[in-house]
Specification:
By secondary structure, the protein is an alpha+beta fold. It contains five helices and seven strands; from the N terminus they run E-H-H-H-E-E-E-H-E-H-E-E.
């Protein structure tokens, strides 16, 4: 990243943002996993899990919170989602899960992840959550280092399906 990047705007996403989130979700997922996930499985996953209808449904749920980072012209470049945990382990009572946090590859290293993570942690604390969970692909060492800087520690593993293809994720936890 260079210092010449334009200013960015972090804001809570609303129902009108479902198309932006779907586009950004698909773009970042494809970029992150195209090197080792089968193409058909990636397309299937993005079609379902990153569809406009999926984001629209999440945005209607009061226990979900989504954030967008945009350029001043309104182009979406990063996002995060906080929600009730869906894990293969039993989470702490009243815990929350950081389900997604991604930035477009050309914007990584510009501090967007830190801004999103701080917003998520602040919201989780405001809701009284005792802990925050997330899942990370076992071979994504850069993401694991990023999460460790915020105090996340490995507490388990689970299977993540991309289309019909299973992958293994670490489950991480941070006490709040």
């Amino acid at each position: 990243m260079t210092a010449a990047l334009p200013e960015t705007i972090l804001r809570r996403a609303g129902p009108e943002d479902a198309p932006k989130l779907a586009l950004l979700g698909s773009a970042t997922f494809l970029t992150a996993f195209a090197s080792d996930h089968p193409g058909e499985a990636l397309v299937d996953h993005c079609t379902i899990e990153h569809g406009v209808a999926r984001y629209a449904a999440w945005l209607e749920q009061p226990d979900y919170a989504l954030w967008l980072i945009e350029t001043p012209l309104g182009a979406p470049i990063a996002y995060a989602m906080l929600c009730p945990p869906e894990l293969d382990i039993t989470p702490d009572a009243d815990a929350l899960e950081l389900k997604r946090i991604y930035a477009l590859s050309g914007w990584q290293g510009a501090g967007l992840g830190q801004r999103l993570m701080e917003a998520v942690i602040d919201e989780a604390r405001a809701r009284g959550a005792p802990s925050l969970y997330l899942c990370v692909y076992t071979i994504n060492v850069a993401a694991q280092r990023f999460y460790a800087r915020f105090g996340f520690e490995q507490v388990g593993q689970q299977q993540f399906m991309t289309g019909n293809v299973p992958f293994t994720d670490w489950i991480l936890r941070k006490a709040l």
